[in-house]
């Protein structure tokens, strides 16, 4: 989750107004989590429901470092921003988010800042579990800012996604391996997506520290930013070949839009591939780049390649 600065292992609270003039949501339950000798244990949650006219947010559960704020709706979707109330995750922390879009609800969840994984006062790994559920005809967008794996940290992150057959999902995750001029910590992630009770995607990654070959040509090839964009939508056209996108293409397109022409050639400093998944109407873009800015360009460019199914 978004974090403040940490000094000597202490947790520092952060504040500030919500984006877009939003107002703070009411906390439900104990907002301070459970502090143990091994770290902080906290679970926050969001539940979105459709009342027949619009999407409402009957539950915003703040806990530990998670402070949930309503944002102005956009394109009919209710929106929530996660603001960091303290530095986290630190070593030993056990953090979880439960996000549920009920039938016909439309929900977008983002974070106010990057998540910074730090070493903390214990050598135990931190865990950060995100559980996403979308019921029939629901739409769920999970669009956080990047996760930064700082030197000395150990973080195990999991995403568990449950989708009804008619649900729609847009999930973006981005990782930056190490801050400027420092090596990364040890970061493992697992993304498991089930649609209609069947596994659509089960993916595990392991970066930094003891992981063998993580920086080699077969994995990151020297890049320090990596991420992916998963789109699941019954209306997607997935009868297509894979698409290779390089950073030169995304930068050139952006420059052409600004200049009003197609001039300019940019060196390829990152790449992405967009592929259909065999288990359902889903497309997955996976990208590597030297910076998070260029990584975002690649993932945004991948979105422009999406098109609805043929009728």
Architecture blueprint of SSEs:
Elements: E1 34-36, E2 39-50, E3 55-61, E4 66-74, E5 77-84, E6 94-101, E7 106-111, E8 115-117, E9 126-134, E10 139-143, E11 147-149, E12 154-163, E13 168-177, E14 186-195, E15 198-207, E16 225-232, E17 243-246, H1 247-259, E18 271-276, E19 282-289, H2 292-304
Parallel strand pairs: 2-6, 5-7, 6-9, 7-10, 8-11, 9-12, 10-13, 11-13, 12-14
Antiparallel strand pairs: 1-2, 2-3, 4-5, 13-16, 14-15, 16-19, 17-18, 18-19
Give an overview of the whole structure:
The protein is mainly beta and about 300 residues long. The protein has two domains: about 1-215, no CATH class; about 225-310, TATA-Binding Protein (2-Layer Sandwich). About 10% of the residues lie in helices and about 45% in strands. The chain has two helices and 19 strands. The protein has helices at about 245-260, 290-305, and strands spanning about 35, 40-50, 55-60, 65-75, 75-85, 95-100, 105-110, 115, 125-135, 140-145, 145-150, 155-165, 170-175, 185-195, 200-205, 225-230, 245, 270-275, 280-290. The strands form two sheets. Strands 4, 5, 7, 8, 10, 11, 13, 16, 17, 18 and 19 form an eleven-stranded mixed beta sheet that branches. Strands 1, 2, 3, 6, 9, 12, 14 and 15 form an eight-stranded mixed beta sheet that branches. InterPro entries: UreD. Belongs to the UreD family. Required for maturation of urease via the functional incorporation of the urease nickel metallocenter.
Give the beta-strand count. Answer: 19
Strand content is 35-45%
**Low-pLDDT regions:** 3-10, 12-31, 256-267
Topology order in helix (H) and strand (E) letters: EEEEEEEEEEEEEEEEEHEEH
Average pLDDT value?
83
Query: How far is it from the N-terminal to the C-terminal residue, by CA?
Result: 41 Å
Main location: cytoplasm
Subcellular location: Cytoplasm
Subunit structure: UreD, UreF and UreG form a complex that acts as a GTP-hydrolysis-dependent molecular chaperone, activating the urease apoprotein by helping to assemble the nickel containing metallocenter of UreC. The UreE protein probably delivers the nickel.
Function: Required for maturation of urease via the functional incorporation of the urease nickel metallocenter.
């Amino acid at each position: 989750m978004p974090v403040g600065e940490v000094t000597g292992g202490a947790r520092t609270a952060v504040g500030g107004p919500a984006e877009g003039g939003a107002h703070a949501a009411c906390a439900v339950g104990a907002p301070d989590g459970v502090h143990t000798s091994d770290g902080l244990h906290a679970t926050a949650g969001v539940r979105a429901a459709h009342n027949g006219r619009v999407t409402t947010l009957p539950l915003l559960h703040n806990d530990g470092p998670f402070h949930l704020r309503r944002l102005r709706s956009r394109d009919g979707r209710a929106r929530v921003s996660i603001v960091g109330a303290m530095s986290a995750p630190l070593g030993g922390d056990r953090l979880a988010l439960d996000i549920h879009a009920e039938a016909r609800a439309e929900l977008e969840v983002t974070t106010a800042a990057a998540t910074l994984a730090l070493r903390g006062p214990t050598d135990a790994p931190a865990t950060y579990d995100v559980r996403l559920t979308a019921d029939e005809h629901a739409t769920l967008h999970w669009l956080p800012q990047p996760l930064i794996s700082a030197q000395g940290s150990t973080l195990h992150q999991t995403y568990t996604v449950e989708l009804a057959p008619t649900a729609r999902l847009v999930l973006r995750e981005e990782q930056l391996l190490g801050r400027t001029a420092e090596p990364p910590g040890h970061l493992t992630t697992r993304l498991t997506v089930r649609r209609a009770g069947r596994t659509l995607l089960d993916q595990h990654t392991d970066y930094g520290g003891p992981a063998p070959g993580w920086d080699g040509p077969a994995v990151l090839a020297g890049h320090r930013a990596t991420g992916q964009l998963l789109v699941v939508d019954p209306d997607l056209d997935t009868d297509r070949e894979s698409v290779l996108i390089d950073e030169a293409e995304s930068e050139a397109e952006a420059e052409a839009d600004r200049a009003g022409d197609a001039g300019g050639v940019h060196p390829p400093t990152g790449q992405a591939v967009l592929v259909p998944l065999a288990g359902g109407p889903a497309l997955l873009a996976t990208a590597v780049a030297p910076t998070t800015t260029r990584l975002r360009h690649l993932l945004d460019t991948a979105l422009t390649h999406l098109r609805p199914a043929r009728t």
